[in-house]
Structure formats: structure tokens, C-alpha cells
Amino acid sequence: MATGFQYCLNSSTIKPVPILQKIEIAAKAGYVGIELWHDDIDAHVESGGSVADVRKAVDDAGLAVPTTIHIHSWFQPAGEPHQQAMDEAKRKLEIAAAVGAPHSVAGPPHGQADRELGAKHYRELLELGRQFGAKPSIEYLGFVEDFTTIEDALGIMESCGDSDATVILDPFHCFVGGGPIESIGKLTADQIAMSHFNDAPADPPRETQRDPDRVMPGDGIVDLKLYCDMLRKVGYDRWLSLELFNRALWEQDPLEVAKLGLEKMRAAAEA
Q: Per residue, what are the HEC states of 16-41?
């Protein structure tokens, strides 16, 4: 059964592999997109490569780059720390555009979230995004202190007053943050830049789970059928991106991990 979803590999899933090899693996495994991390791009440049190398590799592989990951520390510092964060955001947005990404992931604060300041700064980020050609998309994280749900992200999106505001969805963060999957219904398809895709185990307890606890789709207890049904209900038919940080998988053959992940994504999304 066709879903309309496009399957993407978040390169964290095969984290130890150099970036050009990650791109090659994603294409060989059958994905049509790859999410690239700025740490990997920076490491490639620091070792003598260039951003142009990365763009050529994705173009040669026939892959899209839906997002780059990630912009941090933008949400609520003021004064000089904020200017430093914005300068780093400019650098990353320019790179995102150079590798062909329409969006870059903007992560939340890990402590208490000053929502008024966060909305102001997100509007500023979006203005920068239009300038550079890659728009920041806000992400909630289930395990941070105060920005854990779709509602938290939607509040900033609405408060910032910018129609380009979008969110990054993730079933793991819905589960760990305690927000209902049904909250996807509060969004429009155009407000969703990307949906990461993964699962969460029954153990350890939900409140203690962190990124390394993520498991392959279908290997955990998240209701991924409901998740995908809600995406369809709001008309979202674009990216599902396999995002894992599982150290056991990092020790395995990366091409086999990527192939298995695509198989499991399809089984979960097309159930």
C-alpha cells in the first residue's frame, strides 16, 4: 500500500561513518533523502574537504537533503551570548543552503524555556533563514526540562507571528515527553518540515529514556500506526527519517543497518 511518504536516513543512525560514505550508503540502501549533521560537515572540512564536496556527493547519489542538524543556543540567551548564537546560526544556515537543504533543525533549550524570548528569537532566526535560503524548523525534545511536546513548539510557532514557522516531529519525543500523538492534529501539513521516525522500548521507564534508548520502528511500544495515521489525517505525505542513536547499531555493518531500517520504516508506515 503506497503512503506517499518519502524515506530518509538521518545520518546519526550510522554515526561513526564519514559523511561521504554515509551519503553513499543511504543511496545504496534505497533511501531518497539524507539528513546531514553539521558536526559531520565541519569534520569533513577540517580534514581538508569542502562543503562543495558534500553537495556534489548528494547530487551524484540522487539524494535530497531535507534538513541539516542542528542550530542550538538560539532560544533565550540575551546580549553577547545571543549574538554569538546568531552568528553560528548564520554559518550553519549558509551551509544548509549550500548542501541543498530547505530547512535546518533548531533545537530547544535544556532548562526552563523563556517562551517570550524564544518566540522573538525564532522570528529572528526565520528572517535569517530567508536571507540564506534555508529555514530553521523548531524541535521539541521529550527529555529536556521544559520544551517537550508538540504544543510547546506550536506555542512558539504561533507567538512568533511568522508564517514560515515549522516543527520537526518525532514519535520518540512524543512518547518520552508525554505529549499525545493526537496533537499532530493541531498542525497543518505545511507546518511540518520533517518527521523523524523511530520507536521507544518498554524499558527503561519512559521518563528516564534518552537518545541512546531509541530502537528501530516496530521494535518498541510507540503506536506508530496512529502516528502515521495522524500524519495522513493532516495531509502530511513527505519525509519520514530514520533517526537513531543506538550504540549497538553503530557497531554493526552500516549498510545492513540502513537497509534494515528502511525495511522496518516501510513496515510500520504502511501497516
A: CCCHHHHHHHHHHHCCCEEEEEHHHH
